[in-house]
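TODO from last week: model Disulfide bond formation protein C.
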Amino acid sequence: MNQIQKSSNTLFTLLFFAWIVSMVATLGSLFFSEVMMFPPCVMCWYQRICMYPLAILFLVALFCNDKNVFKYAMPLVLLGLFFAIYHNLLYFGIVPETLAPCSQGVSCTSDYINWFGFITIQFLSLVAFALIFVTLIFIRRLLPR
């Protein structure tokens, strides 16, 4: 196996991993809202706006073996990661609730699930965006300079 083929296989694996993470996050959020009937808060909607297109972008990049996925996926990931971090800071009370965007409706600090004392919906979103961020960094390193 030559270096180009090895690099292509690594790219495929990383893109597949990013697509799996984005699909699990997308389907998980839909499951919580549509099956479990947990209404999403404002911050959840902002993160959904960033996550849902990623599932499609990574799928297209996977089929096209597109090395440039970093350029068009990273802005969505950074924005989603920002919202996820802010949401977790709100949830843990590090950012005061007065700075929450949810003045009406569902609170951004709602605790619908709490597995093992720390796994919440907010935490799951943060993990998903962080995993995709790290994966995109690895994809970026595959590109020739």
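Done. The helical segments are 3-35, 42-64, 69-91, 121-142.
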